[in-house]
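FAQ
Q: What does a multi-component entry look like?
A: The components come first, one per line:
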Amino acid sequence: MRKRVVSMWFPRLPSDRALRARPIETPFALIQRQGNSDRIYCVNRPAEQLGLHRGMGLSDAHAFCPNLQSSPATPQIDLRFLHMLVRWAGRYCPWVGLEGEDGLVLNIAGSAHLFGSEAAMLADIRLRLIRAGMTVRLGLADTRGAAWGLAHYGEGGAAVGATQAQIAPLPVAALRLGEKPVIALQRLGVRYIGDLIALPRATVTRRFGKEVLLRLDQALGDQPEEISPLRDPIHYGVRMTLPDPIGLSADVMAGTGRLLDRLCAKLKAQEKGARVLQLTLRRVDQANEQIELRLARPLRDAARILPLFQRMVDQVDSGYGIDQLRLEAVLVETLVVQQVNHTSPDKPHLLDDLITRIGNRIGLDNVQCFLPVDSNIPERSFITTPAADSDPAGPWGTMRLRPLRLFPPEAIAGIGSQPPQRFRWRRMHLVTGRATGPERIAPEWWSPDENWRAGLRDYWRIETMQGRRLWLFYTPQNPGWFVQGEFA
Amino acid sequence: MYASDMSTDFTHRFPLRAGRTHEACGPSALSLAFALGGYLAGTVLWICESWQSDQINPIGFASYMDPQKLLLSKVKNQADGLAVAEEALRSGAVCLVVIELYQPLSFTAGRRLQLAAQAGPTTGLCIIPEGQGNNAAETRWRCSPVFDPVPIIASQDSTLQRWEITKNKSGTLGTWDVSWDAQTRRINVVSKAA
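Then the predicted structure of the entire assembly, as tokens:
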């Protein structure tokens, strides 16, 4: 079947996207930092009319136009927006592909009549995009190359079979050529595509290489060019609708088990593991009960996941009954198959499942493990991180004696740089038996810390006659004594 | 009583009986918990309440047990802590569950922990404030630091403590002066200072 290709070009995609939420009539520009200076990335129509263009320095632009509004460019969000437009364009035909960073290409062969005619379809596309605040230029032709050229340089449609006549008056740049061949062709006086067609092919190839004729042939349809539609993201969701409502917890678990088998097969095919699972139970009175299961490790083993649902399924109010179960892996992570050998731990999954069960009760972030940090500051020489996100690590060197328990510094009465003979701490009268120290620790100047305002600290290990062994420090720059920890 | 008798006596008590919950109180209760964690092979789950400003220091207890073995779980209140402890004791995935308690347990709660520990089987240890023991506990220890006038090894850290069993469901009571040997990671029983 003959192709009919629509090429959409959004000449101001980034600024149109940024201004969709807050339309303004004044000049506006998106700014991108390039090297050492801010440069204009995209401008809206009023700014363009004032002579601003892409690549211009921001300070130059301000000189042209003092009331210019600007904001930083975000190419990733623009790309995501373009992908949303791809999904939207699926309403016209199933074959939608990306054309560079600012365009779409559609193969509308066989679907134009659904909108009346090709012209009606183009009018519909244009109307809807303008309503959405987008500037668009459309080209329609038999080939992708010709449609691109028409969108960028001609704006219009070529009737079936009339491609050559339609693109002949367009400049050679409409052939998607690089800058170099375009300039070279213009120097030779070949300004329009029609001129190029008229040249003998052999001389063109000898002078410019293959690229120019390849692009020309693609535009004229002598060389095929495909449109590859984007792949749909894989959806990790399964559901089951029941003819009669169920209400018993065992029945719900059995249904969940069947869904899990299907979901896990899907996950296994993609080498993924679920991290967060969401089970939605639709009741006959249209109310939804939702259960969210957060797993300590990515998993795709149905037999292990199912028991973890038990506690939460028991708490569900089934009302008049549940007639649809829907299970979705909201968050998936890559989980590659691992070789099991005799050195791998016996039952590592017991601990992971325990972390999951505890985590679902108190929050997965509250189950933590310690990681060492290279710092001399006692309270910053380790961090606690959620055990679900990181594996415990070492080594834990014990260079110097450190207390078993740390607490925020508690001031005690003491004078001078030598440890006090007698002091009162937590309502206890203590007498110093032996003092070991001092160990001087300086604050880290590169990381400002409120608690280390008092400057240097001289740490002493005090063994009291009463038995308690405490970690005291003295701040010479700001005299005072504090207790910060207790040894065994 | 001779020192050798004392130490054999102690070895019957100290790695606390598995599959039971025990209690420890006193300023040095943490020592007992970490020492026990060092004796046992496997992961230790440490349950504390998130509002507590006191926190255990991995650099400090690294001479007792490897901090990689310890999982910390911060709970909002004691009810949550008990639920987590029961779950962990019953699962058998960890070798020791330590829970810091700040209010006395009801007998039912204590008994539930005991049953969960037996089902594991896992050792449980409650660190309790002085005088708030629970009847369901297998043993209750009071651990207090003792001033060591002449340290045995001057360079090494002195960890002399007095450990005392004040309740024992299946054995006798006793008192020992112990210290921690960081090199061998073992408890040394020392003869009582005269």
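Q: Is there any commentary attached?
A: Sometimes. For this entry: Chain B has a mean pLDDT of 87.
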